[in-house]
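User: Fold this; tokens only.

Assistant: Input:
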Amino acid sequence: MTVPFLDAHIHLWDLSRLRYPWLTPPFAEDGPNGSVAAIAQDFGAADYRAALARWQVVGAVHVDAGADPGDALAETAWLEEVAGASGLPDAIVAFAALDDPAIDGHLAAQARHPRVRGIRHIVNWHPDAGRSYTPRDLTRDDGWRAGFRKLADHGLSFDLQCYPDQMAGLVPLFADNPRVPVIVNHLGMPVLFDPDGIATWRAGLAALATLPQVSIKLSGLGFIARDWTQEQVRPFVRHAIDLFGTQRCMVASDAPTDMLFAPIDRYMDALHAILSDFGDGERRDLFGRNANRIYRVGLAL
């Protein structure tokens, strides 16, 4: 039986309205996720609702969609317009570069928008440049860490998209800033071809899970393997729940990005199947009530 779904991670974009360098040709196969040409077209609230038509969507959290950093505030303003017209998204995780010396002003400007709940600054760094999203490991940068500490002053959470071998080094920073909720994106993005990749992922998540303000999204199955199967991803989903518990895990579709690898219905079918043995209350938490609480959405679920 389908339960109400508050999607904890979606993206919308209007390619004529804002600049999205990663969605702009020419497209290459050698990036972390291969060519993104298949999703390089407008994706609005109506497109999202159509893609998730089977799944009793009651709300959604929009996470920064990779607009040009100079358009970060424009992206938030556009999303507020979209939400006013369509009812989605209910909450926004905006972009701000935490290593920017002017970060305090950027955070204040984002926080003035009524639906903004947090910030994402992608920090995936890998020794293999083909896997890396950033030219250096920002998580080791003193300026970036100083920017992270300012999130609490503005009542903002942080969406953490990193690789597993970066996690342990972040634990002291997060432990020293317990007022900043941290939400791990996409199951922590294990890198299966790394030596001891699964062990590194398990150790990194275990370290983060010791901090009560850290939660995790059950999403991004295509980042585990582009040709993923339910049997392949099930151990990752269940291990995350074993570590964080059913109160700190949130199901998310990652539409449309994960549509690079499979239709959204396939993701949702798999996640419902993997979580089918949980009780009704736990499933309602995983599919909506946790996201409602952690992102302070305010829906009656």
